[in-house]
Model the fold of this input.
Amino acid sequence: MSRFNDSNVTLAKEIIGRFPRPKSAVIPLLHLAQEQDGYVTRDAMSHIAELVNVTTAEVYGTATFYEMFKFEPIGKYCVNVCTNIACQLVGGWELLEHAEEKLGIKAGSTTEDGLFTIEDVECIAACTEAPAIQVNYRYRYKVTAENLDQLIDDLRAGRLADEIPPHGTLARVRQRTTDTWANTGIEAQAKVDAR
Amino acid sequence: MSDVNDTEVQETPVVVKTTLSITVDGRAHEAEPGQLLIDACEDAGSYVPRFCYHPRMEPVGMCRQCLVEVEGPRGPMMVVSCMTPVAEGQVARTETPSVKRAQEGVLELLLANHPLDCPVCDKGGECPLQDQAFSHGPGESRFVEEKRHYEKPIPISDLVFLDRERCILCDRCTRFADEVAGDPLISFTQRGNNTQVNTFPDEPFASYFSGNTVQICPVGALTAKPYRFKARPWDLEQRESTCTTCSVGCRTVIQSSRDELLRYQGSDSDAVNWGWLCDKGRFNFENVNSEDRLEQPLMRDGSNLVPSTWSQASAAVAEALKTGTTAILGGARGTNEDAFAWARLADALGIQMRDPQLSDGLPTEVFGLPSASIEEAANATTIIVIAPDLKEELPVLYLRLRDAAEKRRSRILEFTAVSTGLTKYSWKSVPTEPGLQASTVRNTLGEATVREQLGKGNVVVVVGRASLAESADHTVAALSAVLAEVPGAKVLPVVRRGNVRGAVAAGLGSNTNATEILTAAAAGKLDTLVLLGADPIADFPDTDLARRAISAVRNVISLDTFLTESTARASVVLPASAYGEKEGTTTNLEGRVTSVAQKVTARGTSRADWMVAVDIARRLNVDLGFDSVESIQRAMIATTVFAPMADGGANTREGVLIDQPAMSLPTVSATAGTHSSYDLRLVVSRRMYDQGASTAHSPSLVGLAQRNVLRVNSADLARIGVASGTSVRATSSKASVSVTVEADDSVGRGVAHLTFNAPGINAGDLIDVNASVNDIKVETL
Ligand code: SF4
Ligand code: SF4
Ligand code: FES
Ligand code: FES
Done:
């Protein structure tokens, strides 16, 4: 359970400044919270409510509408295996079973070391490349059991750390607008802030 | 013939048509511009089924039950009638086969996930879903799959339970919380088939108005603790009445079964409450049913109060009133008839000293100023508020003024020492300090932007006693300052107890106020003190003076529903019948007289106050000229003030306004020195739930009263060098108490706030009622 840390409070305030109404920043701030802790904590939701001056119930109502916000701790890598029709026809189910066996957990749960969560998902819009899976929403196409094993081993060994950040991080390149723009409404100066 | 005929100029009178002609189910109808089709159809005699639409809230088109057909350029078109405004020439049909099919379809879908546990549901029998499934539904379900399951009712607050299986997601409760109450603490969560109303985990729906959601929920999803499983709707009997808990005077329906009050519902009065009630007014019927009610007269025998009979007790009271100096305190909690009977008895016996307020209100002259109704206040261009926190003390008035600000009809200009519920809706909230209100008002009204605002239209001043720790003179001075600047302003006086205005109009006021009465009593100059439902020890601002007064009076005669600290010292205690147990009328803060209904038999041998007055008069051979509610009302109508009641208007839902003689404000010299930098100026105000009888004897409410803490601005706390949450010693000219201090920036600089009559330390101990203001010193222990 944690609120935003100091640097994220600064970032949160900057994000709020981009919108005409503070309330509009709720979703970007939820992403920020998920990035900080891997999932959206209750304290973070309370903190967001304070920052944008709405009630916690309003933040909660908005947050829970979206499946991609998690409210319980989740693995560092969230593996989504598609079992919808196109994938199913070319082995989606088998792939899911394979993943379950490989990690020793059922879909919907997390490995004891906190590294992996498996989810059984509906169509992720990659039917032409079926069967498809995602790891932290990064795609892998035409996945075979061997690919999957390799992927999991690579993730475990940290070999994919550059490509796949921990769950919650949407992007490691943050586009941000300078304060000058937020306060004056003059021309946007996009600034790339590599983290 | 020329084809241009310019010789015949037709003289058509200019008729400005203010209605729109529409056709509903083949009948011509004139509708109001801006009206929604659903309402116009109903006015035209065709009721359209609905779940989410509520006339006092914005339409959202959530349930789709109100589909009707409207003739369009390409033939009939199905529209959602709660989202469609009427238009000239509109042709609507509410009962065609396709409308019927559509309505049946919507109902079938709503019922697909509905548990259909009507036999064990509190709503069964008065449930719009049940009723409309019967009148507009398909009759049979095709749904054989497993329904949605949730844990059966979960408490979403101390008072309200939510059964998510029964919820049809109409958005009424959530809209009410956000739009009407301004407490969006419940929200739709999750989505799709999992959508459910809920609170944030462990943050309850703690709204003063939560009971309204239970009343407007169109199914049994929301139920209120005090009524759960108490009765079936068809066993309830009901009468329309008026809530007398505070002076807003909300219209209610009081319901009982087997001679026991079981539920109050809001009744929709345009002039007053728009159908809403606050939770205190809605749920405090429990105190009427309390085991602790006084059921028979008590008389003093040495140090004990022992049960007695009415004949003995009344004889003793008559004897006491015959001689010596007598004063009457209270009478503002009863009906107009109660107050009138006692005032006439006092006239006959030459009892001069009377006051229905306990020096916690305003001088009665404010009632004689050009007065504004609630409706006028809520439609004024500028509302100036110099009053206690209306959300705490006059909750439904708060809703009306909040609505005025939110819908941008009015701008609120507030003067207050401590932020109030209205602060965030105010156009300008000006911090002020007790004693300095008049000069703050003068300075503010002199500002150019404020002048400009005041010049934009009519101005209503909502005025009341913001703090019990300061003289009423400061409020009067502030009001005079407004009236000097804005002579056309109308005044809405906010008084606390339900029937202060009625009691004053009936003659229970006098030139001697409660402070003077209690001072005389404490000095041994009073032989008899009659307490009409008054408990000075708990309710008078200066507890020390009240205590000394009560113990110095030889005969304290108390007419009350419960034993209180004051009645415990009485020589005679008479059991009074309570709200719901007696018939009559009451007068709200606007001077609106409405009816109060008897629904159940009075408890034990208790009697209405007026009966006691009539009985005592008879024993003293005084002819009051009345002996029933009707004959008292006839005598009232013969007076100028109550004459407007003559045509029976008090029995209508909107009631009738009394005719108050004009008076002007007393001139006051309200000066208060500035306090030393070591001291804080004390502000003492009330909260909705306190230790008052109606909360304390209602099991569902008693736990809601919060313990007293001393609230101080964090900057002042830092200056004094005290940490928030620690115990400190607070010392006034009267007493020194130890209390927990809390940093709270809604309290202005230089000010300290305590709650009156709250559990924990008693603020009244610190107050000197004769001081212009009260300052306290705060030190670490
Ligand atoms: S709980 Fe009742 S009022 Fe609230 S959305 Fe559900 S059905 Fe409507
Ligand atoms: S606002 Fe006053 S009159 Fe209305 S319900 Fe509440 S206590 Fe009763
Ligand atoms: S069905 Fe798997 S991506 Fe579409
Ligand atoms: S009443 Fe019109 S959509 Fe619900």
The CA atoms of residues 74 and 117 of chain A lie 6 Å apart. Chain A touches chain B at residues 42, 45-46, 54-61, 64-65 (CB under 8 Å). The helical segments of chain A are 6-17, 26-37, 42-52, 56-64, 85-89, 92-103, 145-157, 179-184.
